[in-house]
Structures are given as C-alpha cells and as structure tokens.
Amino acid sequence: MNKRYLFLAVVVVLLGIGMLFMPGTNDNKQVNPELLLSAIDDPSRFLTTDDITDRLVKQDPALLLLDVRPASEFGSFSIPGSVNLPVDSLLSAPAMEMLKQDAKDKVFCSNSDVTANQAWIISKRLGIKRIYVMQGGINQWFNTIVKDTKPAESASSKTIELYQFRVAACQHFYGSPEMAAAPKTEVKKTVTVVKKASGAASGGGC
Amino acid sequence: MVGPLIPMGVIPEAWNNVIALLLGAGFGFTLEASGFSSSRKIMGTFFGYDFVVLRVFFTAAVTAMTGIIYFDYMGWMDASLLYINPYYVMSAIVGGIIMGLGFALGGFCPGTSFTGVAIGKIDALFFTIGLFIGVFVFSELYPLFDALYNSQNLGGAKIYDLLGMRQNVFAFLLIVAAVGMFYFAGVVEKKVKKVEY
Known about the structure:
The complex is a heterodimer of chains A (about 210) and B (about 200). Chain A is α/β, with parallel strands linked by helices and about 210 residues long. Chain A has a domain at about 35-145: Rhodanese-like domain (Oxidized Rhodanese, domain 1, 3-Layer(aba) Sandwich), CATH 3.40.250.10. Chain A is built from nine helices and five strands. Chain A has helices at about 5-20, 35-40, 50-55, 70-75, 95-100, 115-125, 135-145, 155-175, 175-180, and strands at about 45, 65, 85, 105-110, 130-135. Chain A has a five-stranded parallel beta sheet with strand order 1-5-4-2-3. Chain A is elongated and about 100 Å long. The relative contact order of chain A is 0.13. The model of chain A has no long low-confidence stretch (mean pLDDT about 85). Chain B folds into two domains: about 1-5 and about 15-85 and about 180-190, no CATH class; about 85-155, no CATH class. Chain B has nine helices and no strands. The chains are: A alpha/beta (about 210), B mainly alpha (about 200). The interface of A and B includes residues 9, 17, 22 and 34 of A.
C-alpha cells in the first residue's frame, strides 16, 4: 500500500481517538444569544405604570405582577395585588411554576428597572413567554399613581384625564395618598402555588 | 466564537449568490479534476473496478466532520448554529431510490453531469436535459406529490441521537469505518479486472 495513504489513515484515526477524549458539549437549551440581544433592544417588554394600574383596577386575571425585591422591602411597601418573588429565588420550583403559566402576562417590577430587567433576562433565557417589565419600577409607580402632581388648568384634556385616572386609582387602592405613605401593619403575604397534577382531569362539569 | 458567516451578518446577505457561484465553480473544478466527469469512473463503484467516488465523498465527510468537531471544541465556531437539513423519512427513501436508479442508468449524479457538460460530453448533455425535464414534470405535478414530499418530517435529526450515542464516539466509529472501507475498496479493486476508459 502507498505510504502516503497509510500516513493519512493513521492521522485521521489519531484525530478520531482524540475526539473520544473530548468533553461532551453541554447542549443547554436556551434562547439563541443573538435573539436574546435583539429582544433586549426591543422596548416592547416595557409596560407603563398607568397601563399596569388600569389592569390592576380592572382586576385583569391575565396579569401577574411580580415584585422581585427582597421580602423585607416588599413587606414595607408594595403595590396592591403584586406578588413577592425575590430575584434570588427566581429559579426555585414554586417560582418556575408561577412563571410557566402561559396564559398570564408576567410583569416584573422592582424599585427601578434594574432588578426587574435582570429577572426578565433570566426568564427570557429560560424561554418563558409573555414576560414584561414595569417601566420605572415602584418608584415610578409611587410618583405617578400615588404622588402625582396636579397639572395646570391650561393642560391638555388628555393630561387632566390621566391625572384624574391616577387619583381615582390611588383612591381605589388606598383611599387617600396619605394612607399609602403610612407604614404598613399588614401581615406579610405568603404565596403558595398549588401545583396541578399533570394527569389530573379537569374538575367540575357533567 | 464564530458561526456560519452569512446568518451571523459577518458577510452581507447580498454576497450569498456570488459566494455560492465561486464555491460551485470550485466544486465543479475539483469534481472534473478527480475524474468525476466520466460516467464510467462513477459506475466503477457499482461494478467494483473503481472506488474513487466512495473515497472522495467519504474523505470529504470525514474531513469536514473532524474539522467541525475540533473547531467547535476549540471555540472557533459554534456548531450548534449550523443549518441541518430536515429529514423527511418517506421522501428520502423514495427520492433515494429514484436518484440511485438514475445514477446507475445514466452514470451521473446531478453535480457530475454538469461537469460532463462543461467538458463537452454528449451523454452528460442528454442526462442534463433529462434532469431539467424531471424538474419540470415534478414542479407541474407537485400537488400530486405534496403529501409524500412533506410527510414525516423529523427535523434536523442526527444519527447519533437516534442511536443514543455520543457525537464524538459516532464520529470515531465513522472514521474507523471509512478507513476500513478504503482498505477494503483497494482489495476489491486489485481483484476485479481493470477496465480501460
């Protein structure tokens, strides 16, 4: 046999043996980095505080407002109707159950945008759908809904309508802005997610 | 980490056809240079007097596979971004039988028939005319074949997943099989009477 062919055969077999000792590639199922980057650039994940408030007042069942601050901060002030899900427990089993409800719009909020965005990116990489961030966070919510400044009489009717909406929403939640600012004495809410058995039949009905 | 250059936007989309033309010309040149424009050389694989087709295609497969695996390991490219043709089970079987019959009858596969035309082979010219008639008939009768053509799509199925094997173990076995086949082909070539062409 031709020596050259023998040499090439030995080289390729040696390369093959080298492959056997390579560590297996970890095939992590997650969102393509490029798609993630374009999703990060896309501002459509932001929902305004007014939009969230409107849905809270209407008790939209598809809205799940997730407060990603630590439990201590959540205890001292929180948006009525929000659920505490500290960002460090985002990957826990009950949190995943909560996030994997495809029929709900999961909206993250924190003091500003930063922590909520972190939670959003983690969830996005896990492939969770219908996730949003409340723009400006709880600070923005407090400044617009609770402590909104009265617009001038000459302001456009749209601005005045928005102000009236905010005042009404505040009254809906707290009665008055002073009560919102007052320290909360309420017992800390604990959220338990009831996991539905995978094979369970749908209840009720004939 | 580098992926396929055009989808990653390293090379603009507009260059796609230009690059395809250059690669196609290179591919055709190499086919012709390896003697693939001769239908007798190609038919040698079926009759056992010339295994150059087997050698060339398995060498190409093994080289590309080894390159991809090592480049991926080194982090020079991201093999997970490579496009994998979806596997349609029935259409692959039916198409494979038709392709094989045409290959054995005509002595060309679509690529080599064009290299044959390029150097002025008359049999290659007729084969290519038949190829275009086939394309035309298939396109006109597409609604008839639609169900078969698009049935049983397994997506980008990989053989080592189906076998439940590690990718690299499969690659190693394929290399060993290819080298074994090259050796065996050489033995057969020595035994079978030489055909002059």
